[in-house]
Predict the structure.
Amino acid sequence: MPPASRIRRRGAPRPLASRTKRRYLAEVVASEKSQVIAHIRQHYKRALKRLPPSLIPRVAKAGVCIGFLDPVCNIIANTDREGQQRRGTMPRRARRLLTSYFRYLTAWEALYYLRRSRADLLVAVHLVEEDRATRGFALDHPITKVALACAARSAMHPRPDAFMPASVSLASRRRQMCSLLAPLRPISDVTAERISRMSEEGLQPPAAEPHQELMRLAAARTRAFTNVPPPVELQSCFEQSTKKVLMDKIHGFYLEAISRIPKTLLRSRLHRALLKAGHCYGPFEPVGNILVNTIWYDAAFPTSLELEVDMIRNESLAIAESCSLHGLVAFLRALGPEPDDELSTPGNLWNLLLHNACILDKCISSAPGLLRESSITEFVAYRAAAVAAYHPNPAALAHFAARALTPDDVQTISRALSRNNPPDKPARQVKELTPRASQIVAAIRKEFQAHQRLIRERVEAALLEHARMQGDDYEIHAICGVNTKIPDSRG
């Protein structure tokens, strides 16, 4: 228990240092917001100079700068002849789209990207994708539609449901919009009416994907902006977001690896090796490393105690994924950078892994400070990774990973994947549990199996319903990502 002097009464004021830090952080965020507002005001000034006099009073009703064109064109295109008074601040509207579209993106980070992009929403999307090493933007993607709808509602747009399809429709006609909204050319009432009709025509399927062309233009506009790093005060916020994005990527590696393991092997034996030692660091790409490390551990350290499972618990998979990240970071740290080196900080290493798809060879080649001088150094690095990842046998894993795989090794791995027979190696002896420990394990197993039966029944029912509605038959390979809050049949 902490000393009495360190216990703060409920409702008591926070310590001065904490209050000062929060106040200073609020000032930093306010500064970011004020700069975004200044950029938005400039966009409105340019738009007002080009709009016909009859439409200028309508800008305040629906002329938001949200959309898939540049900000000035968005304001002009969104200006409507009808609607109620708009409420809410413009930075909040654009910020809502970014935080709705990008997972783990905080409001503070969204403000930074809007400031860096000069309130150009598509440029901000491009900058986030660059920093997160993703290329997933598409006009017709469900996430894009949801994010745009959230932004429209946050902006108190008079017709939020019509705003999203209208924005997509105009973006898919970018070339026509460019000719209508040529730079510095005043907009006539006839042109405004034509844009209004185009917004109601729906998505136009062009020869090339419209989002690819839009993102190329956004990238071109990015080159005109200065690459300003985020404020130091918000650095930890950015690092935590990077870590979460990286963990999502690692989660995807595990799901792909699970899908590649034969169902009978996964359910009978390999689920144990996958969760205990199937880490994604090694000499190959992450999915290959997970498969190789899983099969090697099962062959090198088999067990006679098998448990047939259909479901892998979220918590167990999350632990394995977290161990993999610890191992990846430890491997890179062991290869070169000194403790006080800038590259050795967690945030920089997470970025390095994210931008190189967690492939260690790519990380090493893209970072001059990481050098492998000999196979001994590589062995030490793999052992450090295994220790950090809580591998059951770090030394054995390091010997296996640091050596080049021979044809016999490849044949052994292929044989292990192609049959459902346990390896010839004798099973490792397991210490006998005490009676009390045996009771606890038996109770946990019984509870897990009951929950597994419930989940399997519900998944099978959902698949049958899908087959009835869509005509597609699916077979359960493995169940992952289960919501543990699902009540049983009695609840």
